[in-house]
TrEMBL record:
The lineage of its organism: Bacteria, Bacillati, Bacillota, Bacilli, Bacillales. This is Rpn family recombination-promoting nuclease/putative transposase. InterPro entries: DUF4351, Transposase_31. Residues 3-67 form the Transposase (putative) YhgA-like domain. Pfam families: DUF4351, Transposase_31. Residues 134-195 form the DUF4351 domain. It comes from Caldifermentibacillus hisashii.
Length: 197
């Protein structure tokens, strides 16, 4: 690269710290800094149980924050980080976090409850969406099965009962393939091949 272009390129030096070797006592600074560094250190390297223990210990440092409003805002950010970073948190874990927070600082437990409720709603919404998607797929499968049965009956006359049942229970992809090839079938045996194991 020409020198006159290099002069305009950022050239930074990075300071990287491996927090995994630092003990709680070695992590210094104000409450916010200590909490975040401990959580960043533990989230990827410890089991869920160990991480939650670190979280409870770190949360006690929130009591040191003088500005209540800032403390609550920071507390909310911390909780959101915990709930999003620790993927295998169960509902029982979340309820345990809420109970611990209620014990440690009652004035902030409302925030934890709100976040736990939001997470539960998100879980419920995700379940609802999956249910709706499954319902739509089942509805589409039933419609295609009905169409396939009508088309095949018109082409070959009365269909064997076992084939009718196979078509009714077939998945969406199989039904689509059957219908796409309906004009190629020479006999009912061509259709039965889709259900042979």
């Amino acid at each position: 690269m020409p020198q006159h272009v290099k002069e305009y390129l950022p050239n930074f030096h990075y300071l990287l710290y491996d927090l995994s070797d630092y003990s709680d006592e070695e992590i210094k600074g104000n409450a916010q800094k200590r909490i975040m560094l401990k959580l960043l250190r533990d989230v990827a390297s410890k089991s869920t149980e160990e991480f939650l223990r670190s979280f409870y210990e770190a949360s006690h440092a929130l009591l040191e924050i003088e500005d209540k409003q800032k403390g609550i805002e920071f507390f909310e950010i911390t909780l959101r980080y915990v709930f999003n970073a620790v993927r295998d948190l169960t509902k029982k874990d979340m309820e345990q976090i809420v109970r611990q927070i209620e014990t440690t600082f009652p004035e902030r437990s409302e925030v934890a409850m709100t976040l736990a409720d939001i997470l539960r709603e998100e879980d419920m919404q995700e379940g609802l969406e999956k249910g709706l998607q499954k319902g739509r797929q089942e509805g589409a499968s039933q419609a295609l099965a009905k169409t396939a049965l009508q088309q095949l009956t018109e082409k070959f006359g009365a269909l064997p009962e076992d084939l009718k049942e196979d078509i009714k229970e077939a998945d969406l992809a199989t039904l689509e393939t059957i219908l796409q090839n309906i004009f190629k079938y020479q006999s009912i045996d061509d259709v039965k091949k889709f259900f042979e194991q």
